[in-house]
Amino acid sequence: MSRVSGVSGVLLRWVVGSLLVTACAVSVAQAAESAEGAEAAESAEIGAAKSEQGALEQAMTLEDLVRSVRDANAAASARLQERERRFIAARDERERLLREVRQQRVAAEREADQLRAAFAEAEEVLADLETELDKNAGDLREVFSVVRQVSGDVAPMLQNSLVSAQLGERITLVERLASGETNPSAADMRELWLSLLDEMQQSGRVQRFEADVIAANGEQQRSQVTRIGTFNALADGQYLRYLPESGKLLALARQPTGTNMADVVQFEQQATPLATVAVDPSRGAILALVVQTPEMQERVAQGGVIGYLILLIGALGLVLGVYRLVSILVTQRQIRADRADPNNHSGHTWSRLHEVAEDPAYQADANALAAKLDEVVATEAEQLNRGLPTLAIFAAVSPLLGLLGTVTGMIETFQVITLFGAGDPRLMSGGISQALITTQLGLAVAIPLLLLHSFLQGRAGRMVALFDQTATDLFARRRAGEG
Hints:
The protein has 15 helices and 5 strands. The chain has 483 residues and is α+β, with helices and mostly antiparallel strands. The protein has 4 domains: 2-106; 138-203; 209-293, no CATH class; 304-482, no CATH class. Helix 2 packs antiparallel against helix 3 (62-137), helix 4 (140-160) packs across helix 6 (172-179) and helix 12 runs antiparallel to helix 13 (366-384). The protein is elongated and about 180 Å long.
């Protein structure tokens, strides 16, 4: 009994060891299995292991235990054979795919060789055809080259012409001929010739037509347009500008100076057989420059605060100069009246000099008489020269302010160059305009003020010299009378 128990224990240990070895083999097989069947195989093996464990737990006799071990070994062998069969099937499938890819590559290489041979043959045929074309074309190539060149020159002329505002788009054919993508036909060359003749004819005619005009405020309206050849377009007494990008006519925001709107309206209405109207011979280029020329108010605004200050000084100097000129002229008139009538006692300097010379209080003392006469002349000289130093200061300060504006404008220009570089001259135009405008304003104010000051000072000096001469004559005459 004890021997049977020992054999049973040995057999049991052998069975358990076999089960452990079998479980390890199954685990290794599960780890090496491919991705497509791993989860299913693992689930099956886990179920088999659980069933084996349940069988061991339920085994009551040695025969049952041996039978369970044999069944487990048989199931494991079946699974391994199934796995081997799948591996072999996958290998065969990949070999088959590899053979097909190789066959496709061989076929593609064969087709590529055929295409290369066909391409080489087509190149030879094309070369032969080009040679034959050059031989047959002869002088036509030169004709086609001239047509392309002429079309390239005509395209911008037709696009920017005022005639296009009336006749519409005309450059489709010209652009196609200028591109040189296809050789022009006889009909194309005839159409190009007719376009040139039409442009020549329209350039010498005055036409009226209805067209959309964009007003200065941006509103678009239908108006009667008068076209003067290819030079100008008029509508409602205003000069128009043609926009090639949109094919529209735009009323100038500011009409050119020197033109009379009444003359333009009269020309449009044909009120008289002959009418005078300004024409731009450059086909709008000069008109655009004239419109862009800033007015006086805009130029003054470009000078900034310094410009307005110079104008203020100029206005004050002008008012002061006119006031002093009127005063000097009035004084001269009074002197002429006093000299013409010695008995006229107007109380002015001339009369006061004679009154002092005839005053009995100064007859006895020559020094008192001379002092009184000098006092009268000095008082009048002060009255005549009043305001002239201020006028001289205004004339001297104006160019200095202009120089200050020049320096300020150049500083602003250099700041713009530092921030944005010198690539765009329009960014520097503000500072340069201020520099030039303030200098111009300073000189424009200083020169008239300086001339006015010189004129007034000369007039006042001559009058003071006349008073001095009169006082000297009166004093000498009085002294001679006493002697």
